[in-house]
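job 3f2a | input accepted
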Amino acid sequence: PSGGADVLMGSVVTRDESLHRQVLLTHMRLGLAVAANDAELVLRNLPTMALRYEAQDTATRELAQWMQAQTGVIQVLHPALPDSPGHATWKRDATAAACLFSAVFDPAIPQSRIDTFCDSLKLFRLGWSWAGPISLCAPYDMASIRTRAWPHTGGLVRFAVGLESVHDLRADLAQALGALQA
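job 3f2a | predicted structure (182 res):
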């Protein structure tokens, strides 16, 4: 909602009175609070939130669909894609999916080359601050971070699509995929 991916704000909600007291005490002891500046950033950017969300959703769907057809990519995870896990629930409950998608790479591609792919991107920067105006990516070696079964053995890259031209973002992905195949 801040429009710049520079505010982290949320809430914890419970109906359990005991848990509520625990959360309240933790909140007090840690000194957690919403700063006035953060609240102002969110309020100032609410009028453009729907426009930003729609633009990012449209661009993300286009890039996710395009990535499905790329050599070395075995699956793209995005709720609007029919073969993505959770698609039926998304289709029942939602009409948009915002800016995130993940690409699962062929297990024959070592993590070092997936890292090189991410480093080769020019418009997608490395980072984890989703939903801002700048596109980001983050590589994950799923085998080293998953404690539960993961249906794939290849590496994964999560993308957060910003507000750049979708044509430019696709060209950036294409050139980095070329580096991945080299």
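job 3f2a | Residues 50-181 form a domain with the Aspartate Aminotransferase, domain 1 fold (CATH 3.90.1150.10).
job 3f2a | closed
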